[in-house]
Write a structure and sequence with these properties.
The longest helix is centred in the middle third of the chain and has 37 residues. The chain folds into 2 domains: 72 residues, Glutaredoxin; 138 residues, Glutathione S-transferase Yfyf (Class Pi), Chain A, domain 2 (Up-down Bundle), CATH 1.20.1050. Helix 1 packs parallel to helix 3 and helix 1 runs antiparallel to helix 9. It has 9 helices and 4 strands. 57% of the residues lie in helices and 7% in strands. A 4-stranded mixed sheet has the order 2-1-3-4, with helices on one face. Strand 3 and strand 4 form a beta hairpin. The chain is an alpha+beta fold.
């Protein structure tokens, strides 16, 4: 059966699913549905109106975390979830830490304010939006980045010594923050910054980042070390 991912590619949740598909070497179609201007009948596909959704034939799966676990069960090789019970739980926790903790801050207060909304309105960010983004990066996000830095430690990957859903979940939303001109600084979070740069160079990430940067990432040159 053919696979189709529905949802705009710049969404960190859509990106997460597409990276999983790429890491598994699976072919798929991409339909960049805009959830703010969805096609007719979208609620029949996505009852909450959110992206992404995955279609496989006449089957529909919603929510990025559910989709990724479905893909793991459907196409188990290469594995992107640890087989050890505790490491499996750790990977799911890191995914939830990002989806429920980091993304709700970095998404609306940094990416949407500095990259997405200016693109839609064709107006530069307001001084208020710039200040909100700065405060979010300097005050709200550091404790979360500290946790990621400590959790990663000296390892290449977050869980089990190999790439997993944990790593994909960390790297995906921080692409959007990168587009907006922010990234964890190398001085304070050297391990996390190095991890992100390695992940973003993987083919599963690199192609989409290069496609998105001219549109959404005009501020990415402003990232500080």
């Amino acid at each position: 059966m053919s696979l189709t991912v529905l949802g705009g590619g710049v969404s960190p949740f859509v990106r997460k699913v597409r990276v999983v598909l790429a890491e598994k070497g699976l072919e798929y179609q991409h339909d960049p549905v805009n959830p703010f201007a969805p096609p007719a009948g979208w609620r029949e596909i996505s009852p909450l109106g959110r992206i992404p959704a995955l279609k496989e034939g006449d089957r529909i799966i919603n929510d990025s975390s559910v989709i990724c676990q479905y893909l793991e069960r459907r196409f188990p090789k290469p594995a992107l979830y640890p087989s050890d019970d505790f490491e499996f739980a750790r990977a799911l926790w890191i995914e939830e830490f990002m989806d429920g903790g980091v993304t709700p801050l970095a998404g609306p207060k940094i990416f949407a304010a500095l990259a997405l909304r200016p693109l839609i309105t064709q107006k530069p960010p307001s001084a208020e939006d710039e200040e909100t983004a700065r405060k979010t990066f300097e005050q709200d996000l550091p404790p979360l980045f500290d946790y990621l830095e400590k959790t990663l430690g000296d390892e290449e990957f977050f869980v089990g010594g190999r790439i997993s859903i944990a790593d994909i979940s960390v790297a995906s939303p921080l692409v959007n923050m990168r587009h907006a001109g922010y990234a964890p600084t190398r001085k304070r979070w050297p391990k996390l910054r190095g991890f992100l740069e390695r992940m973003w160079q993987r083919p599963s990430f690199k192609k989409s980042i290069e496609e998105e940067t001219p549109i959404f990432g005009k501020r990415s040159a402003n990232i500080k070390d």
